[in-house]
């Protein structure tokens, strides 16, 4: 039953993570290790909640939001979600293009085109009937990513006492707050929150997913064929959990137990990769000139650890870009379908969303800085995904016996409060220029 969480976890090891984590380690050493540990713990809770929503209700998070929002509000919500998805896609294409440039000397714009084409090939196998194939392909790329980014740690001289000291939460000035927000945005990603509900629903309720693929978005588009909407239900009302429509309570409990294991294992792996990147930078790149960019970090790794480790690192970066941009395009189609109630073929969407990334590459903006800024934007978008999710999973009329219990709700709302507070500080520092000045 494992698979959906491993696809969602790709969002946690994308090129934006590489840029943010390398920058953190190279500039501040082990100072912000605690940010990654805390963010990964938050991610386990958040991704499980998203998967639970899809499994229990048979609807995705964007579909629930779309069904409960007036047309103007639904469109406004879609705009912010689409901006976040675009920022994600830019980061992922940039990372893949940088990797191709490092490995083969391919010009950045051409590298972006190649990444877009390969991601389209990956997306061609994605639908409700072939989701397992898509999962296996992404899991294979995840294995390459893990090997690429973990290899360097085993040959570098990590100061484990300093790394343990980095578990104590603290900042050193406004720039570290800005960087922490970037790391948080790169770790807890809005599009992964939206997507996981669809991945879990499509994997475990194939009849719902296949029927949704054949129909336009309506209130009963997710009901199995032959089951009509009740006369007492309002048009567009969300599907309520019941054994006849989704699964028996016993089956749902089994699915949720398997999903917990899926999420914990996938995100522990993603978290290990993220921490490894920071430890590698802190141990081998601290104080080295040029390590504020991925190409500079690549050269520094080559100098400090040898060409083999540097090549493995670049291969991991390439796999990260290819996998994450495919998953990001998939997430964008889920968001659009749920909120705009229209279906755009995921490959066509891939073509359109490739354009902003190619523009960034073409005009000569520093790719690494663009990656870090994109993660800050993602961090700002997190509350818009989290708040509806926690409200829905705590709604007993929707979730029935599977609604969040009070301890889980308290923890979940505390997570939301922490993220919102960090983003308020981030916006203040950005608007006032304090983060740059410091």
Automatic annotation (TrEMBL):
Residues 217-228 have a biased composition (Basic and acidic residues). It is found in: Membrane. Residues 217-245 are annotated as: Disordered. It is a multi-pass membrane protein. The keyword Transmembrane helix applies. The chain crosses the membrane at residues 28-46, 77-98, 104-124, 136-156, 176-195, 263-285, 305-335, 347-365, 371-390, 410-437. Its main location: membrane. This is Nramp family divalent metal transporter. It comes from Herbiconiux daphne.
